[in-house]
Design goal:
Blueprint lengths: L8 E5 L3 H10 L6 E5 L2 H11 L3 E5 L7 H11 L4 E6 L2 H9 L4 E4 L4 H14 L1 H4 L3
Parallel strand pairs: 1-2, 1-3, 3-4, 4-5
């Protein structure tokens, strides 16, 4: 049962289908509308079409890299929650400096990601209204 008035939209941005599928398993589709993007250009287009409340972005995406994507999205939307993912800690620090709300190693615990998104939803009413 969905406890939220409307489901917030999450955009998953990762070139690897297996990792996007893994993220979809972690996230609860009864709580979130989930969309996927394969690269930075695809993510920009999907952002415009879906107006996600949350983006989960791999830093090593092709065409437009994760840092550039975060900067572009952040310049348009100060309210969106952006979670950067990488196995490179230095790149994650850079992602935070350029507008990511959170930066996680790809070895994160699934429950931590669920808890983080739950916190975003509970602390920001705009997320449930589909900014």
């Amino acid at each position: 049962m969905n406890v939220y008035p409307s489901k917030p939209t999450v955009l998953l941005v990762d070139a690897e289908k297996t990792f996007r599928d893994y993220l979809k398993v972690i996230l609860d589709t009864s709580v979130f509308n989930i969309f996927e993007a394969l690269d930075g250009n695809d993510a920009s287009l999907k952002y415009e079409c879906t107006s996600p409340a949350i983006m989960i972005v791999d830093m090593h995406i092709p065409i437009v890299d994760g840092i550039s994507l975060i900067q572009d999205i952040r310049s348009k939307d100060l309210n969106i929650k952006i979670i950067a993912l990488s196995n490179d800690e230095h790149l994650l620090v850079k992602a935070r400096k350029h507008g990511a709300n959170e930066a996680l190693l790809k070895t994160f615990e699934p429950e931590f990601l669920r808890s983080l998104l739950e916190t975003y939803i509970q602390n920001n009413v705009c997320l449930t209204e589909g900014i």
